[in-house]
Design a protein that fits this description.
Helices cover about 30% and strands about 30% of the residues. It has one domain: outer membrane lipoprotein receptor (LolB), chain A, CATH 2.50.20.20. By secondary structure, it is an alpha+beta fold. The protein contains seven helices and twelve strands.
Length: about 260
Amino acid sequence: MSAIPPDTTRRPPAGTRRIGRAAQVAAVCAALTATVAGCAADDPDAGTNGVGKLPAPQIAAKAKAAATAADTVRLSGKVVSQGSTYTLDMRLAKDGARGEVTTKAASFQVLRVGGALYLKADASFWAGEKAGAGVGPGGSAAKLGDKYVKVPADDPVYQRFSGFTDKDTLLAGLLGLHGQLTAGNRGKVDGVRTVQVAAGAGTGGTLDVSLEGTPYPVRLQRAGGAGELKLADWGKGVDLKAPDQDQVVDYGRQLPGAG
């Protein structure tokens, strides 16, 4: 009788088999997790407020609605209007504003509390503004320099500069985009993730809208190179307190002929 050859096939112990299967499952799970994570990393809207998925006109509309609903905002940057460049740093509220406006010729502080408008500038500013009205560099203008000047509502100076303090009117004029709207470019403005809305392929201005929290506008590049502005501190408090009386000159009353 021939001997039956021994069985040389050895099966690993059951415990070893279970460990092997567990390792394979873990490897598959890890691969799937990496794939899902990779997909999330490629999604520009992951973790955002979702406005980036909307058509450009809806993004712009939501940004404007958010701006209108907010009580306050800080507006800073440059605006070119009628050949003049204004550098603004304004904190705007629904019932007033405070900040600084700089032109090529002068720099002055602006404060509006309710309907009362105050400007603080040097004597040369007032001499230039009121030339021909009895306010000369060595006369009445010297009394106005470096004081808060309360400007009468019917004075041309009030009409010129009160617009810088009217939140809703100012934003309505600045946030307008001209041309067909497109969107898609993603970026960051001061660390805030944004989606950009462009008008006329950018020639009509661009508006960067926050992808974090409320979809506020955070940067505006105006059409035709007419300036760039940043919008920040939405909803933060603005100190709107009238100056102390000893720091105020009311030229409508105290300087006859100056209005």
